[in-house]
Amino acid sequence: MVALAAAPCRAAAFLAAGKAGGAAPAYRKCGRPAACGPPPAGQTFAAPSGAAGAAAALAPHDFACLLMMRFRIGSGPAGPGAWWPAAGAGWCVWLLLALAAGLLPGRAAAQAPLPDRQLYVTNGPVNALVRDGSTVYIGGSFTYVGPNTPYGSALDGGTGVPDLRAARPNGTVRAAVPDGAGGWYIGGDFTQVGGLARSRIAQLDATGAVTSFDPNANSSVLALTVAGGTVYVGGGFTSIGGAARNRLAALDPATGLALAGFDPNANGSVLALAVAGGTVYVGGAFTSIGGAVRNWIAALEAATGLALAGFDPNANNPVNTLAVAGGTVYVGGQFTNIGGATRNRLAALDAATGLAVAGFNPSANSNVAALAVAGGTVYAGGDFSNIGGAARNNLAALNVTDGRAVAGFKPNANNPVSALAVAGGTVYAGGQFTSIGGATRLRIAALDAGTGLALAGFDPSANNPVNVLAVAGGAVYAGGTFTSIGGAARNRLAALDAATGVARAGFDPNANGTVSALAVGGGTVYAGGAFTSIGGLPRRCIAALDAGTGVALAGFDPNASSTVSALAVAGGTVYVGGNFTAIGGATRNQLAALDAGTGVALASFDPNANNTVSALAVAGGVVYAGGAFTTIGGAVRNYVAALDAGTGVALAGFNPKANSNVYVLAVAGGTVYAGGFFNNIGGAARNRLAALDAGTGVALAGFNPNANNTVNTLAVAGGTVYAGGDFTNIGGAGRNRIAALDAGTGVALAGFDPNASSTVSALAVAGGTVYVGGQFNNIGGQPRIGLAALNALTGVPLPVELTAFTATANGANAVRLAWATASEKNSQAFEVERSADGRAFARIGTVAAAGSSSRARRYELLDGQLPTGVAFLYYRLKQVDTDGTFSYSPVRTVTLAGAAAGLTVYPNPAHGGTATLTGTAPGAVVTVTDALGRPVTTATADASGTATLALPAGTPAGVYVARAGARAVRLTVE
């Protein structure tokens, strides 16, 4: 869980150091990480003396920390440009005054206020990450972003919105059927559902929770149906329900045990099932079943599993799908002969005799994978292009009598259809398509049953194929190989809301090639990569985009001659690295400085690197560059260099002489952290990761993590260095591709071990959250494709999924708090906290939690003892785990009826963008200032006394003051 230290704990450490006149003790000795949030860009906080190796993060927005100390910027013990307390004991007085005033709210061992509940995932690699205010920008090679709903999800049948409460399988779902009580039986290749062991078959109840039904199949479940109080299961298994059953079984729906009398003993996989009356129809790849020779298709007695003697269609190739209507069995597959007649891949058989119905012969020219029958129409899906005597791509509606294609139904799917379900006048289709029914639909669609046109309101978008669909009670269960459904197309660049994890609808730059680098400055997102079009305009390898809309800025077009790999923004300058030879209208080899507004290359900066620049970091007037070069800035510099930010000339004193490529650089205080593929740097043996003195380039003796493979990305927060790459051992411990290291010693932190399944390429840290991008499909013990947000302390996603939290006035004297969870793990209690100012919270009640549960839960608490004289109140939940760690929910605000009029501001907390202030005089000037009194924005109230406060892009999280005349109100920005 994300932990933040109590401010008094850290303050005491520094106070002790001040008294002793020596180094501040490392804050980790308090058992908690840093209290005051992330530092200003490129800056750290250090103790008065001797604390270069024990720097702790400080954010200028943290009111408590700002009151604790008075600062100066200079060449202090933490290096040039570092923030550090002025010498002497005066800063201790500030600390004591702050403590006495009660201005240091505790933050003991807490989780991030914005944990990873519903952070979207991708369908491909994430190469670059930046969090700016309330937005997380991601770049890479993906074409889709969506909720983390791997392999199976229940969708609203009208809107396509996924039910995020549902427990999630850890492997492909290949079969699903309604359970008759609002839930579903699902089958496939998974071994867990919702974190519970369920081998290839499970039941979800109406809330999406896993039931006790646990037949434990030993191989894939490929087909399911329910009839007469029995669950019939087909697949590739040989054991299920506690008994030996070869590929077909009948299970008790309550216990999951195999029914003793039903044992057909199929000798090949069962792919399809349908039940009518007392008969079970079976299709697949078998040649023997129910005690008889049956090629690919059979009818079995429902009670005994014996093959019915009179039904022997004798198909000549596998049967993929079955549907029964009236006295007819419709069969789709790969056959060309069945029921005693030539039938190409689709046939109608007499349900009693198995003979082909003479008049029905659609003759598909390729495989049929899915069937559904409704009224007088047979809907068929597959990978054909001609069926029923007409051209039909992958999906057709056929007349139930003669098999002729219905003229008006032409969805024209551009790729195979593998799943169908019909409800009312709607045909639900799943498969591999991206266009169907005259619209873009990613692998799932709802079509008008008469016209085949896509219904506008249903567009869930899956990031990989949908294999199965089932319909019941206004819901559609979709299963497949997808890891997300309910998202949106985003080509290689997306913006996600940091609070909800959802893609911002207005930001869709649609890059036509890989995005490899991102940087944000002044309301602009700078993107670099291998694209030629982005943001609606031609842009070669680099672009500046509006941070809100994703539209390319017309005035910025540097037109790099080749790939851009690294970006850094400082003031009005964008530093660009890559393997180009021309950019910004000038010859520039691999590294350039561009005017941030015009994109024109700055004439004075021309380092002329002789090979690729892959990494950039800017601090204190210095540009640190890493890559594959051996000369840069007019000097010999092997793979890493420090350049004057104005002239591009190599600084003479910094020459670490790495012996191989440097891929990433991060600067914190007086230290440059370098990652790559080297094994010697800064005059010392250092395998792939090193800490260098920012002035001399000499490797710091105490930091030697000794990674056993490439380090691709770094992020520094407080006293922790987060590293990602391809390593499996680092900091003296086994760590698969991601680790948290002590910034002073390089030792791996014991509690952080997310265990990424493949390469980690990008990292960003904000508050208590570590954002991770790469090529993985599992991290933190859960399925995650390409992107994850992890607890900065533990490296795991939030154990409790909070799906709702509301605070509403209940009359004039009470507030009702209500919240819901989708799942809980080791959850002990919810403490409800209240505040009158949005900053100092106190507990008002405790509600016991569910412990560990995959079931949706709802909770309530009534606050009936409200303080007097306040216009509004703030509430938050503190979710406490059994190990004592805890997390905070987002804050909710309630306006109290009949309260005295005064200044109010909403939303509060704000998440960037705008906030609205009410209750002032018409025409009054409203000023927002930070904790140091520096103006942030101003606005003028309208005739109703309302002012819109436009918060600048990138406004740091923290506490601000909105003032109108003599009155003021606090505004919290998250």
UniProtKB/TrEMBL annotation:
One of its GO terms (cellular component) is plasma membrane of growing cell tip. PANTHER family: BUD SITE SELECTION PROTEIN RAX2. This is T9SS type A sorting domain-containing protein. The lineage of its organism: Bacteria, Pseudomonadati, Bacteroidota, Cytophagia, Cytophagales.
